Amino acid sequence: MGTTIHAAPRRLISIFAVLGALLIAAALLVPTSISAAGWCECTQYVYAAKGMGGSYGNAQTWDDAGGALPNNGFHQSATPQAGDVVVYDGSRFGGGSVGHVGIVQSVASGSLTVRGANQTPPGSETEAGCTNVNTITFVRRTTGETYWRR
User: Fold this and answer.
1) CATH no. for residue 143?
2) What does pTM read for this prediction?
3) Which one of 4, 25, 110, 145 has the lowest number of neighbouring Cβ atoms within 10 Å?
4) Is there a domain that residue 26 lies in?
5) pLDDT per residue as tens digits for the range 107-145
């Protein structure tokens, strides 16, 4: 004489199987390029703060054709304004640099105030999942930096 499984327990088993599959699928859909709360590269901070998708790579490639900014609907502007993403190429910070990105907070004659992560001096504010955020002022240059907005 075999054991009979009633319809209600079978439905519960099916519901739990579906819920388990949904949880696994949801975990696989979470982007791996967004940093968990903690120390971030500059690209991770801007990526999260601007709600960008895709891969973020090195900062100096963000403004390339097919880079993170054009791929996320940003267009280049000749004049910076608050809210723009600024991209500094590798030459700005010495040989071998991978560049830097940040978010323009304000523009003054000859300088930009930029909010970002992994800047010097190190930051200690928490924003967009990053614990090393700060705001610093950079001298503007005519080459080696570009400005992007949506």
Assistant:
1) 3.90.1720.10
2) 0.74
3) 4
4) no
5) 999 999 999 999 988 889 999 999 999 999 999 988 899
